[in-house]
Amino acid sequence: MSVPLHFAVKTRLVGLLEELGEGAALPPERTLAKEFGVSRWTMRQAIRELIADGRLRARQGQGTFVATPKLIQPLALVSYTEALRAQGQKPGRELVAFEEIEADELLSEQLGIAVGDPVHRLERVLLADGQPIGLETTYMSVARFPTLRDVLKPEGSLYRCLTDELGVRFGEGEELVETVIATPREADLLKATQSLPMLLLHRTSRDTDGRPIEAVRSLYRGDRVGFRATLRP
């Protein structure tokens, strides 16, 4: 079976990236196409795939650069803050919305409350070293957590707030991961193009007594984040 030309070019480019090192600027597309003896279209396709893979990062008006390795997040009930710090990254959050809404049928089922009951809706952009990597929206019952708005710092860890301030003990959770394309609003918040692949996580968690804690929708940039799970028989 013959290998597509752009894939062969992509493989050669990976070797070049390793030589250049993290943060280095990639030579112009025209220069690379001439050096590799291929068309600019073929070179452009190979570069686009490396951007989607997270190996390259395009900066508007500046060029294309060798990206830092992807952040690997564990699929587990752990703090986002702790997971990033363990990889040498500085975590951060930017508040988008913190409001009260009414539970629809899905939230009613996920949170164990009645349709129409009040729900906290917390939406924040997740940052790593000041750069947006995810958009997280969390839903929690107002009846169960009436003081959440008083004790939670919008830029702080919700996990830590729940455990340290509200005495919550996480027991188990369920998580679904899928690939999606961001909406124009989501792409704008994440400073990405709509063509960039995204990883969407849906999570529900319960405490040690089996009571629902939260329902979470997390959208991550596919070029910046990967996930790891430990599997046991």
UniProtKB/TrEMBL annotation:
<dbReference type="InterPro" id="IPR050679">
    <property type="entry name" value="Bact_HTH_transcr_reg"/>
</dbReference>
<protein>
    <submittedName>
        <fullName>GntR family transcriptional regulator</fullName>
    </submittedName>
</protein>
<dbReference type="InterPro" id="IPR011663">
    <property type="entry name" value="UTRA"/>
</dbReference>
<keyword id="KW-0805">Transcription regulation</keyword>
<keyword id="KW-0804">Transcription</keyword>
<dbReference type="InterPro" id="IPR000524">
    <property type="entry name" value="Tscrpt_reg_HTH_GntR"/>
</dbReference>
<dbReference type="InterPro" id="IPR036388">
    <property type="entry name" value="WH-like_DNA-bd_sf"/>
</dbReference>
<keyword id="KW-0238">DNA-binding</keyword>
<dbReference type="Pfam" id="PF07702">
    <property type="entry name" value="UTRA"/>
</dbReference>
<dbReference type="InterPro" id="IPR036390">
    <property type="entry name" value="WH_DNA-bd_sf"/>
</dbReference>
<dbReference type="Pfam" id="PF00392">
    <property type="entry name" value="GntR"/>
</dbReference>
<feature type="domain" description="HTH gntR-type">
    <location>
        <begin position="1"/>
        <end position="69"/>
    </location>
</feature>
<dbReference type="InterPro" id="IPR028978">
    <property type="entry name" value="Chorismate_lyase_/UTRA_dom_sf"/>
</dbReference>
